[in-house]
Amino acid sequence: MNYPWLDAHVIESAAQDLLMKCFGASGATRPCIDLDAIIYDYLCEKERLSFDNERDLGWEDGDQVLGRMKPLAGKIEITAALREDGNLGRYRFTLAHEIGHWVLHRPMLLAQAEALDLFGSTPDHAVITSLDRSVFPTGSRGRPAPEEWQANRFAVDLLIDRCLLRAEFSQRFSEPVIALHSPEWITHSPTLRDHARRLASANVKGFRPLFSVFGLSVETMGIALEQRGYAVEEPPAF
Fold it and tell me: 56-65: long-range contacts (C-beta < 8 A, 24 or more apart)?
């Protein structure tokens, strides 16, 4: 399927709408979003989602399968390996990523299935499989497919409130944007992703690292800092 372009504002609006449905106006006041409440109390109850995080999903094309969204079966799967100690942040981001596929892409796939009269055939038609390289992309792996970029963007918007991140970032750093190629940072990080990871894990002024505050891994917090423009290649021109 050729997935249509979705503007970043459309994706953010979809994430905020889900938070409002689940938590009301108070949903964004907690840095560490309760994903279990979204899955079990809302999606399973209201949208009849079937959720499975109890088994290994294997490998595909040399990459670990982290999750699947099965639109006709109404199911999200997350590999059990992410529930191991030390993977909580990756688990939370992957789950938010699959919720993004459910919210953004499942309606498209259901409409396609209805148009092609695919209901009653294999329930796994048009399954979206999320691999390690698409959920956690790096520059060396190239740009992910549009639907994977959209799901990642949704995950960041679901997990990290803009106002809360701005407040937490400003408490730790004196500048609104920290550039890799600025004199005080360039010798520390060879790539932008390394730079973003360093900001995500920094212990600054006695405050907890950002990744810990939002319940993410260093990698996923780094992705968020890149997407939100807090970690950039070049110093901004003012």
Answer: 56/80, 56/81, 60/129, 60/131, 61/131, 63/131, 63/132, 63/133, 64/131, 64/132, 65/129, 65/130, 65/131
